[in-house]
Specification:
Helix content: 10-25%
Number of helices: 5
Strand order of the largest sheet: 3-2-1-4-5-7-6
Shape: globular
CATH topology: Rossmann fold
Largest sheet: 7 strands, mixed
CATH architecture: 3-Layer(aba) Sandwich
Strand content: 15-25%
Radius of gyration: 15 Å
Oligomer: single chain
CATH class: Alpha Beta
Structural class: alpha/beta
CATH superfamily: Vaccinia Virus protein VP39
Distance between the termini: 37 Å
Length: about 180
């Protein structure tokens, strides 16, 4: 899997095809960042923004965010082997600002500083019910934060997403945290 754009463009991220996770396809990663960076309804300063790649798997979304100029990225995955693989990759680029954790975010007492993120990308295994997890964290997330979800079904249908796109077997949604806090 290759990084699409930015300072790390063309670099290869090693992916173990035997693992249970499914890395986000290049075409979908490109769509996500085009929407995030060019949609007129979504405005923020990426050079001063912190990105979180939750359930990061290969880390491709977070690495893409760093490559495209985000100030900082926090990678979290419960699989410590994946966190180590991401760490080994990122150590080759000492100018990038990142942090890593292997928290179980279904736990209310996880150690993630949710209030520090401007963009949070949730891409859990599809069998995990994401809505209750986000709602458990939502009061810790800053109001202006953008929450992006990748799921196999529509979520938060009681509120309108800022932007959504459906693919063959997945849905990408962009929400503002303050809208989800109203639910």
């Amino acid at each position: 899997m290759k990084i699409i754009s930015g300072i790390l463009k063309g670099r290869k991220i090693e992916v173990n095809n035997k693992l249970e996770y499914r890395p986000t396809l290049s075409r979908i990663r490109e769509d996500i960042f085009n929407i995030l960076l060019h949609n007129p309804n979504i405005t923020f300063d990426k050079k001063n923004s912190n990105f979180a790649d939750v359930y990061c798997g290969s880390g491709s979304i977070g690495i893409e965010a760093l490559s495209r100029g985000f100030k900082h990225c926090h990678f979290n995955d419960i699989d410590n082997a994946q966190i180590k693989k991401i760490s080994l990759f990122l150590k080759n680029f000492p100018n990038l600002n990142y942090s890593l954790s292997d928290n179980d975010i279904t736990n209310e007492l996880d150690q993630i500083l949710w209030s520090s993120f401007d963009v949070i990308y949730f891409d859990p295994p599809y069998e995990i019910k994401l809505e209750p997890i986000i709602m458990q964290k939502i009061e810790k997330i800053k109001n202006q934060a953008i929450i992006i979800t990748e799921t196999s079904h529509k979520i938060f249908e009681a509120t309108q997403s800022t932007y959504n796109k459906s693919y063959k077997n997945k849905f990408i949604n962009f929400f503002f945290a303050n809208e989800l806090k109203k639910l």
